[in-house]
C-alpha cells in the first residue's frame, strides 16, 4: 500500500468524517457535550460505522477521538476516561483499516480553550502531545488535525504531529465571516501550515459545498502540497454560509444547528457535483464532515473515479416499475409515470 502522499500523487483520496453527528443521530452520543464516549460504551456502533464508510468509499478510517482530548473531558469532569477512550478509538479504527486495506488516521481537533499567547498554548500543546503519542503507539499512518478556527492552535497540533515523525493533514474551520480568528485569509493560514511541515492542508466542517468551494482556488494557489476539502453536507448559502448560521423558516426562523439540520441536507448528487468541481480546482483529498451519510460518501467516491463495494448497489432507475425503461417494464405503468 502506498503511503498517503504517494496515493495522493496517483489520484484522489476520500476520507469520511462526521462520526460525531452520525453517532448522535443514531442515538449513541449526546448532542451538546459531543464527547465520543460511544467508543467505550458501544464500540460495536463505531466499528460498524467505520465499516459502512469504507464500504461507501472512504480510503481512510479516522479514529473517533474528536473532542476526546483532555481539555474537553476536564470541562465535563471525565478526565479519567481520556486515555482509555483514545486507545480504544484508535484500536477500533486500526482494526477496521487493517481488515479493509485502508489507512488509519489519528485525530486531534480544536480544544476550545486556546487563546493566542503562552499560557493557554502550553496546556493545549500538552493535550495534543499526549493524543498524538497514543496515535503513534497505535501505528497510525498519519494524523488529522482538524476543525481549527485558530491558525495558531492548528500549528501547535501540527508541531506535535511532526515531533512524533508522522505525516499531518491540517484542515481549518472557516466560520461565517470567511476568516480564521487570528489570520484573515484561510489560504494564508494553509500556507503557514505547509511551511511548518503539514503534508496536506485545507478546510473541513462548518461550510457546505456551496460556500466552501469558492475558498478552495485561493488555497490551491497558495500552497504546493495536496489540498483537502471536507464540507458538511448542508445547503449553506451566501447569506447563511455556515451550518451554525442556518435558520429554518418552517420553524419560525430558529437556529437549525445542531439537531434540526435535516431539512438542509444536501442530496448525494450535490456532493458528487462538489467533488467534480473541487477536483477541477486541483483538490485531491476529499471528504465530508458532520452530517455525512454513506450515500454522500459513495457519491463522492464515484465522482472521484472510484468503484467502492457500495457501488454494486448504486441506483439503476432503468429497472424501476414506473420510471424505468428496461425490457419487461409494463408499458401501461410507464405511461402512468407522469401521474406519480
Ligand atoms: Zn464537522
Keywords for this entry:
alpha/beta; two-stranded antiparallel sheet; 8-stranded parallel sheet; globular; 13 helices; 340 residues; 10 strands; binds zinc ion
Instruction: Bin the strand percentage.
Output: 5-15%
Structural class: alpha/beta
- Runs in which pLDDT lies below 50 for 5 or more consecutive residues are none
Q: Can you count the helices?
A: 13
Terminal Cα span? 49 Å
Molecules bound to protein: zinc ion
Radius of gyration, whole Å = 20 Å
**Could you give the order of the helices and strands?**
HEHHHEHHEHEHEHEHEEEHEHH
Bin the helical content: 40-55%
Average residue pLDDT:
97
Count all strands and give the number.
10
The largest beta-sheet arranges its strands as 1-10-7-6-5-4-3-2
Largest sheet: 8 strands, parallel
Apparent shape:
globular
Descriptive report:
- With 340 residues, this protein is an alpha/beta fold.
- Helix content is 42%, strand content 13%.
- It contains 13 helices and ten strands.
- The chain has helices spanning 4-10, 19-25, 38-41, 43-56, 70-75, 82-100, 118-137, 151-163, 186-195, 209-222, 268-280, 294-303, 331-336; strands at 13-16, 60-62, 103-109, 142-148, 168-172, 200-204, 227-230, 247-248, 254-255, 285-288.
- An eight-stranded parallel sheet has the order 1-10-7-6-5-4-3-2, with helices on both faces. The chain has a two-stranded antiparallel ribbon with strand order 8-9.
- The termini are far apart.
- The model has no long low-confidence stretch (mean pLDDT 97).
- Zinc ion (ZN) binds at residues 18, 205, 232, 289-290.
